[in-house]
Every structure is written in structure tokens, then in C-alpha cells.
Amino acid sequence: MNSSLQHTLKKSVRFVGIGLHTGKEVRLVIKPAPVNSGIRFVRKDVEPKVLIPARIQYVTDVRFATTIGIGNSTVSTIEHLMSAFAGAGIDNAIVELDGPEVPASDGSAYSFCVLLDKAGKKEQKQPRRYLKILRPVTVRNGDSFICIEPCSNMKVTLEIDFNHPLIAKQRFSGVLDEQSYIEKISRARTFGFLKEVEMMQANGLALGGSLDNAVVLSEHSVLNEGGLRFPDEFVKHKVLDLVGDLYLAGMPILGHVKGFKTGHMVHSQLLQAILSNSDNYEVTEKEVPPVKKSFWAAQGKEASAAVANI
Ligand SMILES: [Zn+2]
Fold this sequence. Notes:
By secondary structure, the protein is of the alpha+beta class.
């Protein structure tokens, strides 16, 4: 069955945008890569050039975004692009960029998914490998909780609870395959509170943050023209982040993740906890049904807006 083989891109694709935290323009090129090489990043503007594997061992910071690095070469805010790779079923690719941060695009993974679709997927002659969870693994950190249990698919059940009238409690539960990821998750944008955004910018963070790349909330309303993309966009973005961070396993995971008030920190702690004991998992090959239809077809207008800067 086709979709259980590894995939890379048919051709290289380019993207230009600003970094959410640095506010600087970054040019990004995503290139095809050989089987079993995974997703790797390279900073074109740093000497000597090193390939940084998008693997949990190379994570250097998880405070506001997920950062990987080797020596002086670091790349931050990789999670939305990683989520797009995971969601679109790309196993192997090289991401070259000329700055320290992946561009924010629209604050979701959607533009990256459109970009990957534009490149086209190339089947490779090697089975895809999966990290199959064999027994429950749990992490608690403050009031955050996350665990993973054995499951024949990638399933996610997340709940958030914010002291804000427009968010409050939201819950998402579902099996994620390529189609459900694209339809339900990929367009959910990152979000922030106006007060916190102002404070972060005063401290040199979120300098590129704007209503173009994040949902911004005042005390009682969404400031973005057009409002939300889904009523539960907030928890869906948490799922998007989780998918991206867990792809730092270097392969898709077969397990049911359950979480409450999750974030980059507990995502990375969960992955470390899983990998710390080989009794927790096995690496396996699994047949997965192919995607039934092109997920872009229904998205015409937004897709053309998203690719305008590609
Ligand atoms: Zn995010």
C-alpha cells in the first residue's frame, strides 16, 4: 500500500516570511532528501554549516517555541513546519534557512501544507517506520498533564482551560490521519492575549507578532477581523503544536495522547520519557489506508492567499 512507504518532495520549494519572535524576514527552501534521513534543518547564514536533525536530542529550548540546535546553529519555532511535515506525511526533507527562526506564515501550518502540496510528494522505496507505544507513559508538570497509551493509530485527546470567556474549556478528541489533520487541524492559528503580547514585545519577544500571524484576544473579544476559523481553534492549535513536537521522534507515533493544559515543555518531556526506556515502544512498519481525496480542493480562496508569498 503506497502510503506505508516513506515520502519526500518531488522538487524544492521556497517560502519567505517573518519570524514571530525575531520579527526578521527569513528565506526558507525545502528540498527533497534520501530515505531514512528524516527532517533536517540547515542555517545558510552560519559557518560552518551543519545539518541539524529535527530530533528530540537536538532540542535546546522549549520556553516560547521549540528550538533545535548544534553549536552556534539554532533554529527556533520549528513546530508548525514540523506539524505540516507530520500531517502531510513527509518523512525526509532538508530545510535551509538564512535566519534563526522559521517564518510565522499565518500562525498555523496551513501555508506550509500548501507549500508541500505545491512541491508534490515523491514515494520512496523504503517502508515508513512508526514508533509504536507498548505501555502507558505519563508526565505531569505543574497543572499540565500528558500521557500516551497504546493505540493502533495516532489519536489525540486534548483539553485546555483558560481563564478567558472566549476560550474557557475546549476539548478535541480524534484519530489523526493525513485527511483529518489537514481538514481539522492545519488551519488553527497560534493565539495570544493582548496584554501578554505587549509585555513580550517589551522584552524583545514576539516582535513579528501581528494579527496576520496570530489570533489576538483582548479581555472580551478576538481582535482579528473575521474572527476565528473554528469555534474551537484554540484547542486545535494545541493539537497542531503537539503533532509538530512529537514528530521530533523522527517518525510518526502510534499511540493515544491524552493531555490537559499542554505545551512545548511537556511535549518534549513526554517524548524524552517514552524514549528513555526501550520497553515503552518498538519501531515497526504498518500499513495505513491511503488518503481518499486531495485536501486542497475545497480550500481555493484561502489556499491562493496562503501561497501569495511563496
Ligand atoms: Zn503553535
